[in-house]
C-alpha cells in the first residue's frame, strides 16, 4: 500500500496574499483596541468588547505571521541557499536548518 503525499489545505500561491491580508486586518483590530482603551473612561468600558477585539486581533496576527514564515520557507529553497552561500552540494530542509560538513565550512572560510 503506497503512502499518500501530505498536502496543504491552502494552496501555496495564496500564502503571500493571506499573510498581507491577515496581518493588515490584525493590525487594524490592534489599533482599534488601543484607541478604545485610550478614549473610553473606566466606567464606560466593556470587558466583552475588549476580550473580543483582543482575541480577533491575536488570531489574525498569529495566522498572518504563520503565513509570512511559510512564504519565507518556500521562497528560500535549497538551490537559492546553495547560490547565496556558495556551496556546491548544500542541502537545506524546510525548517531552514543548514546541513553541511566541517570540510565544506573550512573550504568556504578560506
Looking at this protein, list some descriptive labels.
110 residues, 4 helices, transmembrane, TMEM258/Ost5, transmembrane helix, Dolichyl-diphosphooligosaccharide-protein glycosyltransferase subunit OST5, membrane, 2 domains
Describe this structure in words.
- By secondary structure, the protein is mainly α.
- It folds into 2 domains: 14-74; 76-110, no CATH class.
- The protein has helices spanning 15-39, 47-75, 78-85, 102-109; strands at 91-92, 98-99.
- The chain has a two-stranded antiparallel ribbon.
- A hairpin with a 5-residue loop joins strand 1 and strand 2.
- Helix 1 (15-39) packs antiparallel against helix 2.
- Mean pLDDT is 79; it is low at 87-100.
- The chain crosses the membrane at residues 14-39, 51-74.
- It is a multi-pass membrane protein.
- Keywords: Membrane, Transmembrane, Transmembrane helix.
- Component of the oligosaccharyltransferase (OST) complex.
- InterPro entries: TMEM258/Ost5 (IPR007915).
Amino acid at each position: 500500500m503506497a503512502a499518500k503525499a501530505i498536502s496543504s489545505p491552502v494552496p501555496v500561491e495564496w500564502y503571500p496574499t493571506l499573510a498581507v491580508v491577515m496581518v493588515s486586518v490584525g493590525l487594524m483590530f490592534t489599533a482599534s483596541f488601543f484607541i478604545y482603551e485610550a478614549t473610553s473612561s473606566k466606567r464606560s468600558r466593556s470587558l466583552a468588547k475588549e476580550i473580543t477585539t483582543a482575541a480577533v486581533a491575536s488570531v489574525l496576527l498569529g495566522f498572518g505571521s504563520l503565513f509570512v514564515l511559510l512564504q519565507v520557507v518556500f521562497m528560500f529553497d535549497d538551490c537559492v541557499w546553495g547560490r547565496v552561500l556558495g556551496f556546491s552540494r548544500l542541502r537545506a530542509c524546510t525548517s531552514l536548518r543548514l546541513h553541511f560538513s566541517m570540510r565544506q565550512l573550512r573550504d568556504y572560510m578560506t
